[in-house]
Q: What sequence folds into this?
């Protein structure tokens, strides 16, 4: 307690030197939390959009289906089994049939995934109801990026070619009835959405599906013969990995900030011990043991971190709350990032992020404060009183 | 302790290595200092005055021989026990005052008490008493930078005396002071010596100090050349 009191007195007494270090540390706290909050916000927002538009409460995949291997698509279909069928009837699930196809926008050939979806589904937050037109032979819905890349507009007709269950090629003209405004590129880029029953007829796969999306809060799903259930852990793994890789890139800034702050503390400590050699001798002469002198100097350094927290809280909390509420405008959309992002990114600060950052900085500050202070353990009081250090 | 002897040196030798050779700072020093003595160790620069005070004050250890202070052999003390001895029984007064610049006068004087177990109220009273002794009661809130040399040394005396130690070691306490201030602080120390029965040992070659001493030990080249008691 006495050491703490003395450390506080010394720290406050050091005046400007202390406050400069505290300012640097508080800036480090705020910037690191804000920066890491951006990644957390990015993950939260992307996960939310994926869950809302594509994943919902999880998906049943037909055995053999691999979204990253187009060659598996020809065989990735199966009859929907009874337990899933009842979920669909209860509007707690919706089936999707996925087929490989080709489109010819503006005379160019382009591969596309044709996805059949029930226009009456309510599981995914996409405007599938727009596909329920009886007047149009083959209504097609595409995403905004798909439309932009291929210069497609509502009302445009595109020729679609596909292979049916027997491997026979067939083709038809589809009419674009909706361009959906989604942030999720995996339901947008290179994809055509058509009515499920129509696609089942086109490909001769009546009552069959490739995946079945389960609604949030549906009965506890379990694996069925020929169907495997994929939960959020599996389905969000890619996005999680992608954010992790971006977070790792962002760690460079984290390390640089931490390094600069620690350099300031280390420099202050070295200077402080050098300037206060006689004081160290006097402390020993007055009866302070070496380990306590080391503790005093280490604590002084570590208290920069504590004062930094206090100052960071004063100006950092309003800044962080403001940025979390208003968001940060992004220079480009999710197209460039490769995953779901809107034009504004809303940082998210969890208690874990704040406490973790504080913990890491405090531990680092304490270690950095201790390292120069170790020198004191070799000091003889008589040498220190003369202003000598080993 | 026999006959109120608080400090005793027996064949005390202190050597320092200098450039591969040994320099003998103290050579076969045999001295005793009694309770409430007001003694000066005098001699020219390099005669071993400060070294003797450092060993008595347990800031350094003898190379040979013994220094027994308050019944404890300095050479045998661990670092921790030496610190405890200094903390409980010694007051130090330095030539350059060695006050803590970021502390107020009150806090500087309070410092040695913080290392002892004492209630806040007792501590405050002890500090105020010590400041009263040295006549700096009204400067309690000042910082050392706001004090004159004489005032700074009086704060150092208050700091040394605040815990009413058995021994005060003063190394050239008047070296940075003018004649008036030197007399002031010496009168203060002499008064405290008489009132509190504290043993004062000075290392000095200042004539102004010597005239106040009741015993003068003269060191020459690390040996005791003379030991004169006067009343």
A:
């Amino acid at each position: 307690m006495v050491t703490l009191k003395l450390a506080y007195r010394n720290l406050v007494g050091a005046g400007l030197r202390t406050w400069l270090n505290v300012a640097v540390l508080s800036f480090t706290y705020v910037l690191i939390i804000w920066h890491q909050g951006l990644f957390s916000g990015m993950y939260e927002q992307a996960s939310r959009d994926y869950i809302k538009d594509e994943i919902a409460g999880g998906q049943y995949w037909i055995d053999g289906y691999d979204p990253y291997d187009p060659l598996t698509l020809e065989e990735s279909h199966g009859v929907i089994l009874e337990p899933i069928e009842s979920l669909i009837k209860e509007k707690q699930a919706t089936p999707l049939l996925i087929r490989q196809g080709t489109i010819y926008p503006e005379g160019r050939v382009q591969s596309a995934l044709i996805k059949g979806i029930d226009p009456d589904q309510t599981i995914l937050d996409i405007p599938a109801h727009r596909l329920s037109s009886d007047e149009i032979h083959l209504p097609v819905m595409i995403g905004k990026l798909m439309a932009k890349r291929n210069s497609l507009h509502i009302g445009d007709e595109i020729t679609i070619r596909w292979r049916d269950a027997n491997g026979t090629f067939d083709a038809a003209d589809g009419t674009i009835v909706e361009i959906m405004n989604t942030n999720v590129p995996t339901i947008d880029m290179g994809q055509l959405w058509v009515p499920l029953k129509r696609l089942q007829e086109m490909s001769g796969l009546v009552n069959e599906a490739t995946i079945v999306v389960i609604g949030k809060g549906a009965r506890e799903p379990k694996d069925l013969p020929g169907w495997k259930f994929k939960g959020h852990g599996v389905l969000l793994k890619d996005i999680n990995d992608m954010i992790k890789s971006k977070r790792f890139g962002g760690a460079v800034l984290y390390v640089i900030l931490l390094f600069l702050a620690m350099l300031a503390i280390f420099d202050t400590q070295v200077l402080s011990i050098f300037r206060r050699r006689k004081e160290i001798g006097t402390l020993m002469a007055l009866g302070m043991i070496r380990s306590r002198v080391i503790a005093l100097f280490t604590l002084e350094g570590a208290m920069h971190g504590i004062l930094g927290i206090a100052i960071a809280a004063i100006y950092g909390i309003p800044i962080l709350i403001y940025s979390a509420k208003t968001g940060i405008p992004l220079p480009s959309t999710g197209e460039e990032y490769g995953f779901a992002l809107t034009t504004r990114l809303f940082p998210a600060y969890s208690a874990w992020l704040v406490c973790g950052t504080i913990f890491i900085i405090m531990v680092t500050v304490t270690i950095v404060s201790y390292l120069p202070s170790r020198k004191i353990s070799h000091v003889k009081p008589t040498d220190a009183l003369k202003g000598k250090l080993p | 302790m026999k006959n109120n002897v608080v400090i005793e040196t027996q064949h005390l030798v202190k050597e320092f290595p200098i450039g591969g050779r040994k320099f003998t700072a103290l050579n076969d020093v045999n001295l005793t200092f009694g309770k409430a003595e007001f003694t000066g160790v005098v001699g020219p620069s390099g005669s071993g005055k400060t070294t003797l005070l450092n060993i008595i004050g347990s800031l350094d250890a003898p190379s040979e021989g013994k220094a027994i202070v308050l019944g404890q052999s300095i050479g045998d003390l661990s670092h921790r026990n030496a610190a405890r001895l200094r903390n409980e029984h010694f007051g130090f007064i330095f030539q350059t005052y060695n006050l803590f610049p970021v502390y107020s006068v009150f806090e500087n004087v309070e410092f040695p008490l913080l290392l002892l177990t004492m209630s806040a109220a007792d501590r405050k009273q002890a500090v105020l008493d010590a400041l009263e002794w040295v006549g700096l009661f009204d400067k309690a809130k000042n910082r050392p930078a706001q004090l004159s040399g004489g005032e700074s040394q009086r704060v150092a005396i208050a700091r040394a005396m605040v815990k009413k130690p058995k021994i005060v070691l003063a190394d050239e306490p008047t070296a940075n002071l003018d004649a008036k201030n030197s007399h002031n602080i010496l009168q203060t120390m002499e008064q405290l010596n008489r009132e509190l029965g504290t043993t004062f040992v000075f290392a000095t070659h200042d004539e102004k100090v010597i005239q106040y001493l009741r015993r003068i030990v003269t060191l020459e080249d690390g040996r005791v050349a003379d030991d004169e008691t006067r009343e």
User: Anything to note?
Assistant: Chain A has two domains: 2-52+239-385, 58-230. Chain A touches chain B at residues 2, 5-6, 9-10, 12-14, 278-279, 281-282, 284-290, 380-382, 385 (CB under 8 Å).
